Amino acid sequence: VILSENTSIGHPADLNVSMSDTNTLGSYSYFLVFTGTPSANSVFSNYNTISVAVSAQVNGQATALDVTPKTITDSVNQHGSLPSAQKITLTQTNLQSVVVSGGNGNRYQVSKTSGGSYASSITLDSDATEFWVKLMSTSSSSNVSTTLTVSGTKNSIGANNPSNKTISCVATTTAFTASVTLSPTSVTETYDQNAT
């Protein structure tokens, strides 16, 4: 039976106290005030009220964030073809959003889908299970590297924001070498003096 304010409970009585709302996080403190009619040898003999302090703590649920793999590698030729995009598997629990940041237009960028638009950062919703990483240029003559940061924001029942994850992206580049091949490599001619 759920008792309302000013309900008569009789005497003696045992009461069970519980939280009516466990969805809202935080600390709660209340006082239950019992008003009695004094009688001989009663706890209400000298006064007619007793206050009982009640406190509760509603903690959030555990959050989680992870990505696989955490390293992306490519091997390219300078000014050569771009490599295919690579998939990152995302695992998240009790998060409302995930942000992937740190991309660079001349290095690595990220997209929600393999064939979608690539950008320096993207925001994923709570249902996302993957995203894609791709090298955007092969113009550099040296190796290219980018570190992407993956961060999550807890939802309304999450206890706290999870720790960030990082993805290391490295492209090993073979520099372009210009060359000229001549054939033949020498020319010899013979002339007669005063000949026309």
Task: Give the secondary structure arrangement, pairings included.
Layout: E1 26-35, E2 49-58, E3 64-68, E4 71-77, E5 86-93, E6 95-101, E7 108-111, E8 122-125, E9 130-135, E10 144-154, E11 165-174
Parallel strand pairs: 4-11
Antiparallel strand pairs: 1-2, 3-5, 5-9, 6-8, 6-10, 7-9, 10-11
Key features of this structure:
11 strands; mainly beta; 196 residues; 4-stranded antiparallel sheet
In short:
The chain is mainly β. Helix content is 0%, strand content 42%. The strands form 3 sheets. It has a 5-stranded mixed β-sheet, with no helix packed on it. It has a 4-stranded antiparallel β-sheet with strand order 3-5-9-7, with no helix packed on it.
Please characterize this protein's 3D structure.
With 196 residues, this protein is mainly β. The chain is 0% helix and 42% strand. The protein has strands spanning 26-35, 49-58, 64-68, 71-77, 86-93, 95-101, 108-111, 122-125, 130-135, 144-154, 165-174. It has a five-stranded mixed beta sheet, with no helix packed on it. The chain starts with 25 loop residues before the first strand and ends in a 22-residue tail after the last strand. The mean pLDDT is 87.
